[in-house]
Description:
The chain is mainly alpha-helical.
Amino acid sequence: MTPSAAIERTSAPRRKSCEACKSAKRRCDLALPACLRCARRNIPCIYPGRQPVRWNEMNMDFISTPSQPYTPSQDAIDFALPDLPDVGPLPLADSHLSLNDFDPISQFTYLGASTDIPLDIVKSRTRTLRPVSAIIAKRLQFAVDLLNEAPKMMVLENKTPWCHQQLYKGGMPKTMQDAYACCALYIAKNEINAPVILASFESRIQELLSSPVSTSPIETLSHTQALVLYQIMRLFDGDIRARASAESLMPVLEQSAVSLIGQIEFPDITFANSELPATIHPVMESWDSWVFQESARRTVLFSFYLIQIYKFFQGEEALQCDGRLGLIHSWYLSAHLWNAQSAFDFAVAWAEKEHFVVVNADFSGALRNAQPDDVDLFGKMLLVTVLGVDEVRAWFHSRGAIL
């Protein structure tokens, strides 16, 4: 990158209301990939001149061969990264990589309804003087360590920070069964068996991508979660071919996460503590639905988070969203709700413990009122990315706890 304060802008046409809102004569919030009205009704959201894309419509021949560097679509969530010295790609397999002004979720914003929104992508070329290693140490090392443990956590505990332990208690779809088995193989990988294990990954991934697209909510979620696990294991592995193949899969992960959004109901911070009844039995009955919804919410957010981490380690120049992608996102910050292992435990936690809704990475309310035991691993990972590890340690220390 060359030192420059110039900002390049590319203009784009103004967006119009989707077909469903236009036919119903309702105001469209123009959110991508689907407006809020269509998402809540689980109906196709089609904007003029824009057609939805399915996974099986994509060319899957890239799975076994490296492709051009991954460039996310403008429909994807774009997090803001500081511009960095031109140091080239960083070795993902180095467990000692250690991050500053990296703020991947500060741009994850929801824009209110508008009928006339220009879409501009801003590329900043300003050089930062902060070393890359300092940025990693401060903002990303916590996440990298957590990612390295995710396959083992999935096998030994049936969970990850974005996949609830009870999500698949009623049965695990085959897509996730295959990913689960690959996680077990990955844990046992060594120099001798690595080629066989990585070849098994490629076979399972090819099967996943060539299978018919399911509209079942749990199948859709398991599809995205399986892709996330495959990407983690291959991106953070020292094998160059595995990493190149994983890069080719980034557009598929992005599209899978975008498709999952249509299955999600996002909580409103205004009514966070009143969305469920106060009596215990109705809350108990809502637990299974909450487990699915919260896992889906976290999976979508984490998918784009992983994509952005990879972009950073690849040394890509920052593409800063101008704040007009219109994507809505929120999730529950509550270790008590997330760690509940039964409907009764969930209902008790809902009634007796305060819980917080984080909307578009705004942790201000939680930081004012939450206690350390309210924050689970997912919350810690995002907090460290937003604030920096020392700031989060200070917050925990001020409340008598350790990060």
